[in-house]
Amino acid sequence: MDTATRSTVTAPADRSTPVRERLTAGLAEAVARKGLAASTIADIARLAGTSKRTFYEHFADKEECFLALYHARSNELMAAVDAALSPGATPATVQLHDAARAFLTFVTEDRVLGRAHVVDVTTIGERGVAARQEVVDRHAETLLRMLDQARAAGTSVRRLTHLEAVCVVGGLNEVALRALETPRTPPSRTSSSPRRGSCRRSSSPTDAAGRRRRRLA
C-alpha cells in the first residue's frame, strides 16, 4: 500500500510527549504483570518512574491512559499489516494471507497485551467500544483498498461491502482471541532461528515494557 493511503489511528488528542510515552509504557508493563483491571495509577506512575501527580497532568484516569496505549498499538499493528502488503507484486490471495499473518502475529506475540488489545478495550465503557470500532473500520478500509488495487491490476476478485469487510476483520479478531486463550507449547530445540534480515519494529511503549521485564527477570 502506498504511503498516501496507509492507515493510521489518531488518538483523541495529539499530545504525544516523552512523559506520556513513559506513562503508557508503564501501563503496558502493569498490564503485563497483573492485567488491566488490577493495575492502578500508582502502579503506572511507579513503573514509569514518575509520580501520580505527573500522571494526572497528562491523563484524566487509567482508562484514558489505556486508550492512548491502545491507539499506539493500533498504529503499530496497522503499520505491520501495511508492511506485509505488496500491491500489484503478488496475487491478491497471497496478500490476504500475508496481511492476516501479520495481524495475528502482532496481536498474539504478547499474550497479555494482546488480550488487552482485543478484549479489555471493550470493558472500559463507551470510549473503549468506540475506539475498537474505529480500529475495525480502519482495517476494513485497508482490506477494501487492497481488493480495489487487485481489481485495478486485472485480478478477478469480488467487490466487498464495508460490512462484509468488517466481518472479515471480526473473524481475524476471533482467531486471535482463540490463539491467545490456547496454552502455548514450549518451542522445540530444533526450531529454526529467525531469518537474517527480518524486519524489526521501531521502539514503542510495548517494546519498552518488554525490555524492562527482561531486565527485571
TrEMBL record:
- DNA-binding region(s) from the entry: 40-59
Where do the HTH tetR-type domain residues begin and end?
17-77
In its keyword annotation, does this UniProt entry include RNA-binding?
Answer: no
A GO MF annotation of the entry reads: DNA-binding transcription factor activity
- The answer to keyword Membrane applying to this record is no
Low complexity composition-biased segments: 187-206
| Keyword vocabulary terms for this entry | DNA-binding, Transcription, Transcription regulation
From which domain of life does this come?
Bacteria
Pfam family example for this protein? TetR_N
PROSITE patterns, A to Z: HTH_TETR_2
Positions of the region Disordered? 180-217
PANTHER family, alphabetically? HTH-TYPE TRANSCRIPTIONAL REGULATOR BETI (PTHR30055:SF234), HTH-TYPE TRANSCRIPTIONAL REGULATOR RUTR (PTHR30055)
Name the record gives this protein: TetR/AcrR family transcriptional regulator
Record the organism: Phycicoccus endophyticus
Top-level taxonomy: Bacteria, Bacillati, Actinomycetota, Actinomycetes, Micrococcales
